[in-house]
Amino acid sequence: MLMVFFFFSILSFGQSLHLKGKVMDVTNKEPIGYATVAAVGSTTAASTDDDGNFILKVNPNFSKIRISFVGYESQDVSISSETYQELTIYLVPEEHTIETVAVTAPRRAKYSNKNNPAVELIRKVIAHKDENRIASYEYAEYRQYEKVSLGLSNLSEKFKNRKVFKNYQFLFEKEDVETGSSTRGYTLPAFIEERLSQVYTRKKPNTTKQLILAEQRAQFDPKFVDNDGLSAYFNKLYQDIDIYESNIELVTNQFLSPIAGSSPTFYRFYITDTIKTETPYLVELSFFPRNKADLLFQGKLYITLDGKYAVKRADLSVSDDINLNFVRDLDVKLDFEQDSNNRYYLRTSSLGLDFSLTDKGTGIKGNRTVTFDDFKTGIAQPDSIYAGPSVVKVVQESDTTSDETYWATHRPIALKPNEQNIYRNIDTLQLIPSFQRFMDISALILSGYKQAGPIEIGPVNTFYSFNPVEGFRLRLGGRTTDRLSKRFYAEAYTAYGFKDEKWKYFLSGTYALNNKSVYTFPQHYLRASIMRDTKIPGQNLDFVQEDNFLLSFKRGENERYLYNDIYRVEYKREFESNFSYVIGLSKWRQQPAGILTYQMLDDYGNNTVFNELNTTELSVGLRYAPHEEFYQGKLYRTPIFNKYPIFYLNYVAGLKDVLGGEYNYHNFTLGADKRFYFSQLGYADVNVEGNYILGDHIPFPFLNIHRANQTYAYQLRSYNLMNFLEFVSDHSVSANIQYYMNGFLLNKIPLIKKLKWREVFSVKAIYGGLRDENNPAYTNNVFDFQKNEDQEPITYGFDNKPYVEASVGLTNIFKFIRVDYVKRLNYLDQPDVPKHGIRVRVKFDF
């Protein structure tokens, strides 16, 4: 998002465009009289005559016209820059619309799949798609060129002339006519990247290998922006489009392909033209979503009439009413070409996206173009070509492939003049002091850290917090950056509680053993750390600091804390295959704080209180995440969900009499995560996990204290209606299901669908047990469970039933808020437990 202030295109001026055309009903080809034809974004308009004909003269700044008539869905049509153009436009009758009383309105036929030649044609396309896709070749190889360019779009003259941009006038350029409005005058440069690759595919086993031969991009100052992470993020948004896939992933969502097996259920198809100027002849097949708010395309397919029923061309867009966030416009163009065997392969692919917070405001407009050359089939390559990762960067940093001389001879399509300027302008921009200040402030707002030479101070949301043990807590910390060292990374903080009057601290140092950043894939590092700080037993947070100010607000009793002293050494090795392991050794001293107590009762009722507990732990963690990708930041990385499962196995051994350790135990955890995609029915994130602890007379702090949440934020991995320290076990199994329907139900409800809310459902269950030798109810050799002020137990093992909670919620409220109603389904008679509640989560998503 730091890139939101740079991009460009070009605006063409010329004489007026003369448009002539006809508007007809798509169902019966009857002309539609008195329909309105208008240039999008202007007051220029015309009406059709009784025969559906119209003539319209528009300014060349416009690229779209909109055709509308009562009882029909409005249709936006792109126009080119040619001076004279003839168009034939088909309107689709609206479903469930009251007939207009007008003698000129043609009779509208009800759409049906039965006896529909368009549906019969698309079923033939579906039946032949496996033999037409590239995966049907035994072997194929080709040269691939990719270009991604983005810019800040829809900028007015007033915006351009602001005082803050006085020194940046060289960056602004006139916007491309494709924007379609005379008020959208300028763009601002942001990003461009080019990549040249050699790609090999084989059918058995199904494998694709991409060798990156050359790449270059506009580089920002690495102290503010991680250029590799920026590139990975944009390439995730602008993905490859395979029309033959049943589900097409785009802007982190899945769209049902118009030639998926189930497409006739969700799309309406119409034969709108036959093209005899090409060989073989083509049928123009128009398609529209049955529900305009669903994640579906609309557009045209051009199908060959040679018995192969292949897609020759495809033009895809989306409805304005689609339940998709921040995307103002989406345009996909695919062109296929015949190879030497008269089969079709993808020749060019273009994906245009216009992002914006509002329909008319400033946005980010970008385009990804992919060209495929030198297509060959039937050449068997040795197995060594396909070995290793699916994508390999052959180009090295020392190569000269970033020179313009190289690209001028190897680039299949020349850059536009404005695209050539991006490389130079971004370099110039970063020399301007005011831009440096802007980037510094933006980095503070977005990352929470303030640049200070080779270190960063932060995160700012942890500077102040509070809790019942420490009271008012102040914290100050920071971390090093690659300006100090690329291979060494340090992080530290100190904090002070004004109630307990104690200092806390943390210090860690990490050294990369592969000459890369410690966060860059594949990781290979050695880390050492020391910490003295407070912690709530049973609270485990992902990607969030525990002393985040917003987490200071908690429900129920919240006074059982620990003072932890932890010394840890850790070694991590990650492989290109996405398998990794971590080996660690830690010494852990914990002291109860607040009203937490560690005590034992002997057979005579005598009470022994323990002021501290010591353990030494050896840990081994194994993880396998096939085909995993990341959003890579400068000092962090976030995994990207895909369809492949992630498996993990963790083992922790307590070592008695080693470095002061007091207990022997063996803790095993085996689990898996997977996202299941259900096409138009959304997707589900599923986690299953099992845990078993070997050992006798183990005190509850070393057992499995199940993850509870007493904040008002909805936490994905925790039990949101479970109290801290409520359940412990030495063996358990659990399941966590988060099901996102992406608005499939709400999109069908009138009025409600305009809010673009989305449904979410969840179920979390855990069932476990506690062996007698670890249960204080059967032995005096372990710590007593916790009790409240009335001496009622508030810590338990499981009975003969699992703990279950479920929720139903709405996401996408104001595009970023999730609200859940959570209900606890059992163990309702235990003291101070909530039976239900409302929880909120911030979630930005497309």
From TrEMBL:
Residues that span the membrane, as ranges: none
UniProt keyword Protease present: yes
Entry keyword set: Carboxypeptidase, Hydrolase, Protease
GO molecular function terms noted in the UniProt entry: carboxypeptidase activity
Listed name of the protein: Carboxypeptidase-like regulatory domain-containing protein
